Amino acid sequence: MAVVLEQPASLDAQPAPPATRVLRAEGVRKVYRSGADEVDALRGVDLDVRAGEFVAVMGPSGSGKTTLLNCFSGLDSIDGGRVLIEGRSIHELPDAERTKHRAAAMGFVFQAFNLILVFTTVENVELPLLLAGTKEAEARRRAEETLARVGLGHRFRHRPTELSGGEQQRVAIARAVAGRPRIVWADEPTGNLDSEMAGSVMDLLSELHEEGLTLILVTHDNTVAARGTRLITVRDGRIVEDVALPATV
Ligand SMILES: Nc1ncnc2c1ncn2[C@@H]1O[C@H](COP(=O)(O)OP(=O)(O)OP(=O)(O)O)[C@@H](O)[C@H]1O
Ligand SMILES: [Mg+2]
Questions:
Q1: How far does the centroid of ligand 2 lie from the alpha carbon of residue 62, in Å?
Q2: pLDDT tens across 130-158, in order?
């Protein structure tokens, strides 16, 4: 019979035990080649993320934040090291397996929303569910339920161009979480929003985090980063700082 030992709080700072670790990156390297030029975008990056963390990623433009997100999530290939998501080495999986694993475990939110403009909000949200094999009626039900959850229950039939920027980003968040992923990656999700809309988008992401979602979020905005439980600073393809953040009220 398994015995569960209570962990003293002080052990929190220790490396994550495999059971609660959702991400482990080991010596990840990424080199972009264009013609004779080479850019070392990631220079051997290690990172451990535990379930339920909200990791804010900051750093100067061109430092490698987007590359880190794309490589760690398996959206892009790597040139060295390995990345384990929930214990599986994602870059070593066959393409179809990696895509399936990504669809089941992860959601993505981008600065430019990336919604399909000819689709309604509900069609945008249900698309990844349909691609993942969810039956039509169930995909529609879940898309509507998730849109209601992000405060857009009255906007099912609108198209993205008929929504404000903040509303479009909430549709994108609904799309990212409708499949109930355990990890959401967000690359400057408030970068195109004014401060009020950014606040409401961050309230939503913070709520989802409080419900147990692991969130890894790139931002240039200190107030956005302050919502995190942990702040990582990237510079010149390396993590140069990694600190726990105090809880905000
Ligand atoms: N597809 C690509 N081909 C060649 N070089 C690239 C490519 N994508 C990014 N780079 C280079 O890799 C480095 C890291 O880029 P990255 O997009 O990760 O930076 P970033 O930290 O996200 O910057 P920003 O804050 O401006 O979004 C930069 O020097 C960039 O010019
Ligand atoms: Mg970027």
A1: 7
A2: 988 899 999 999 999 999 989 999 999 99
What is the residue-wise DSSP string for 24-87?
Answer: EEEEEEEEEEETTEEEEEEEEEEEEEETT-EEEEE--TTSSHHHHHHHHTTSS--SEEEEEETT
The pTM (predicted TM-score) of the whole model is: 0.90
Q: Is 190 in the pocket of ligand 1 (CB under 6 A)?
A: no
Query: What distance, in Å, lies between the first and last C-alpha atoms of the chain?
Result: 40
Q: Is 77 in the pocket of ligand 1 (CB under 6 A)?
A: no
Tally of domains within the chain: 1
Please tell me if the CB atom of residue 138 comes closer than 6 angstroms to any atom of ligand 1: no
Specify if 38 maps to a domain.
yes
Q: Which atom of ligand 1 is nearest to the CA of 59?
A: 21
**Which ligand is in closest contact with the Cα of 67?**
1
CATH number of the domain within which 89 lies: 3.40.50.300
- Res. 43: pLDDT tops 60: yes
Q: Whose CA is nearest to atom 24 of ligand 1?
A: 61
Give a yes or no: residue 132 inside a domain.
Answer: no
Q: Residues 176-211: pLDDT tens digits?
A: 999 989 999 999 999 999 998 899 999 999 999 999
For residue 227, tell me if it sits in a domain.
yes
Contact 48, 16 (CB under 8 A): yes
Atom 27, ligand 1: which residue's CA is nearest? 61
Query: Nearest bound ligand to CA 41?
Result: 1
Domain span holding position 45: 22-115+181-244
Please report the pLDDT score of residue 99 as a whole number: 87
Q: Give, using CA atoms, the residue closest to atom 1 of ligand 1.
A: 32
What does the alpha-carbon distance between residue 218 and residue 187 come to, in Å, rounded to a whole number?
5
| Least distant ligand from the CA of 110 | 2
